[in-house]
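Help needed: design a sequence for this.
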């Protein structure tokens, strides 16, 4: 009987440890710029070791106004914002595993790619893209990413 009691207690302890390890923590990241603009989303949400970033457009930091210069300038600005958000939580662009691109005018794809690849000089994340009919603030491009926080 003693051995069975010990086994039952040991099993319960083991199950509690396993359950505790399986529970994922969720953390919402909201920058001062997003708070200032009173936007209804988090810049990123961390679930376990995955980071889910909200889509970024090429607006000026803390303003509801796009950077001048069209898709090239907007791509650079959006990617810099992604890089800054990741950096604020200790993640680099090398840890980005997936991006989704929404582009207003698909004929601008080449211009977009010229700037996008500069942010991923080594291995590239998985990516999907689609043409969009109307992005926030009349943006030319919106970029959403996921990263692994190891």
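Sure. Designed sequence:
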């Amino acid at each position: 009987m003693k051995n069975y009691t010990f086994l039952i207690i040991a099993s319960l302890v083991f199950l509690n440890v396993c359950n505790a390890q399986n529970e994922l923590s969720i953390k919402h990241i909201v920058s001062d710029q997003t708070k200032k603009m009173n936007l209804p989303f988090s810049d990123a949400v961390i679930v376990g070791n995955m980071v889910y970033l909200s889509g970024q457009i090429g607006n000026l930091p803390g303003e509801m106004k796009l950077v001048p210069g069209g898709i090239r300038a907007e791509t650079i600005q959006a990617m810099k914002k992604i890089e800054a958000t990741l950096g604020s939580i200790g993640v680099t662009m090398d840890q980005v595993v997936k991006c989704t691109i929404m582009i207003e005018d698909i004929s601008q794809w080449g211009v977009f790619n010229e700037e996008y690849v500069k942010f991923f000089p080594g291995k590239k994340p998985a990516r999907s893209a689609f043409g969009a009919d109307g992005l926030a603030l009349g943006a030319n491009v919106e970029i959403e990413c996921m990263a692994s926080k190891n």
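The CA atoms of residues 19 and 115 lie 44 Å apart.
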